[in-house]
Amino acid sequence: MVTLLESGMGMENAARGAAHMLQIARPDLVLSTGFCGALRPGLQVGSLVGAAEIYNLACGALISAPPPDKALNELLGHNLADRGCTPASFISVDVFSDKGTAINQIPANIEKPVLEMETAAVSRLCRSAGTPMTAVRAVSDPWDDDPAPLVAGLCDRNLNISAVRVAATILRSPAALPKLLRLARNARRAGASLGEAMASLLERL
After folding, report:
1. What integer pLDDT is reported at residue 117 of this predicted model?
2. Which pTM does this prediction carry?
3. Which CATH architecture has domain 11-204?
């Protein structure tokens, strides 16, 4: 049986959702999915990445989170190779972080770092529960595009996109509209890539 859960954006929402999932569904394994932003050249919008390593970047410190399950990673790598899924280092942040600040806090030997806001929270809970987990994400913004300042202004305190805030942003700054449209277009492309990969994966497993 496959159980799907949409936790929402951010570490707190991810932790709350993962805890509920682990308690109620008691899964044999957990696959965390979502979007991420590339921090260095090489990944394009829609590129698929699998978690080779997981870190939490908080208060300027990069802390290792529980790593993904090796057997799951081998299985995913085998089944998603034809979709160009490549290993990456997942950098989870607790709050919206601009890429310029983030990349300056990540050592050069961290390979293919991508920025996101959930995986470390899920990996910690799965480690505590003894449940194997890994993560796959689709790139929604390339290294030279940083939507964090814009997206932060669109979210309420629970990190949900607010229609009121979107409208207010456009009215206050019409120049933001092209950025919003690009953000929506990139999210659709990343979502389609991730959805097709997950559908293919479930058919093969």
Report:
1. 96
2. 0.94
3. 3-Layer(aba) Sandwich (3.40)
